[in-house]
Amino acid sequence: MTPFGTRLRAATDTFGPLCAGLDPHRGLVEAWGLDYSVAGLERFAMTCVDAFAGHVGVVKPQSAFFEVFGSAGVAVLERVVADLRAAGTLVVVDAKRGDIGSTMQAYADAYLADGSPLAGDALTVSPYLGYGALRPALDLAAATGRGLFVLALTSNPEGPAVQHARLDESGSVAGSVVAGAAADNADAVARGELGHVGLVVGATVGSAVQDLGLDLAAAGTPILAPGFGAQGGSLDSVRRVFGPALPQVLASSSRDVLSAGPDVAALRERAVATAEALREAVASG
Questions:
Q1: What's the pLDDT tens digit per position in 22-70?
Q2: Which residues are annotated as active site (predicted)?
Q3: Residue 197: is it exposed, middle or buried by C-beta count within 10 angstroms (0-12/13-18/19+)?
Q4: Which of 159, 184, 185 has its CA nearest to residue 172?
Q5: Where residue 281 falls among pLDDT bands split at 50, 70, 90?
Q6: Which long-range contacts does 163-168 make (Cβ < 8 Å, 24+ apart)?
Q7: Tens of pLDDT along 105-151?
Q8: Which residues pair with 92 in a beta bridge?
């Protein structure tokens, strides 16, 4: 496939820099008047597919909310991935996998290998067994034209204890993750393209990017920014958090968009309007 960074740039240019979260947790499923069951999960998920496919550039299903139903739930996730990709919509499987050696290789094969029913266009991963432990996923993503989004600065209150910690005079733990992604993206950046290794940086992390001296723009990474909308991230906060890296940002909104359901037209309208607002925010800098 065409490299992930290139495909992501084309998708955001066409549809705007929104990643629509597909999070069928109990509260949302029941708010839609559905039973919290495999049948309710499937109805919820496929309503989102109908609303988003071909109208939103990127969709991010949260794997945990499918896994909770066992193999039947994973089968629904496989259908979501297949149907969205068939419509040309990019899929980021939000599974946050991270391990070492042969186990990391197996996760990579499950979510990034050609022919795997769980392989979308990108996968979220955790680097906190060491960025280098992700090498099987990093290499397979590059080989198959897929991408990764590596957790760097998350907005949960427990995150800073690890991510802001100083390693030595070279900088913070988060800085080492950014440096790893920058090294893997160097060839793409030299060509003036986005790399295939993205970073997850919360839209509500405040001044952490600046405080830690992170140069996200120079790293050439796509930036997945969860927390936009119901979790408190706004157009203004996205501008403040990311500054010169704003054109690389893919803002993720789940609850705010999904609250417009279960009507397909209303759900689609909310997603498209959110994407256009984000596009205008990026354009205005």
A1: 999 999 999 999 999 999 999 999 999 999 999 999 999 999 999 999 9
A2: 96 (proton donor)
A3: buried
A4: 159
A5: confident
A6: 164/208, 164/212
A7: 999 999 999 999 999 999 999 999 999 999 999 999 999 999 999 99
A8: 122
Q: Tokens in use for 83?
A: 């149907």
The domain defined by 4-137+147-280 folds into TIM Barrel (3.20.20)
First to last CA, the chain: 32
Task: Give the pLDDT of residue 285.
Answer: 67
- Which element (helix H / strand E) includes 79? helix 70-86
State the chain's maximal CA–CA distance in angstroms. Answer: 54
Q: In sequence order, what are the beta bridge partners of 147?
A: 122
Is 60 one of the annotated active-site residues of the chain?
A: no
pLDDT at 230 over 60: no
CA dist., res. 253 & res. 276, Å (int) = 13
The pair of structure tokens assigned to 241 is 């958090």
Contacts of residue 84, Cβ cutoff 8 Å, sequence gap at least 6: 49, 52, 53, 59, 90, 91, 120
Global pTM value: 0.96
**71 three-class SS:** helix
Q: DSSP class of residue 250?
A: E
| Per-domain boundaries in the chain | 4-137+147-280
Catalytic residue among 85, 96, 135, 164: 96
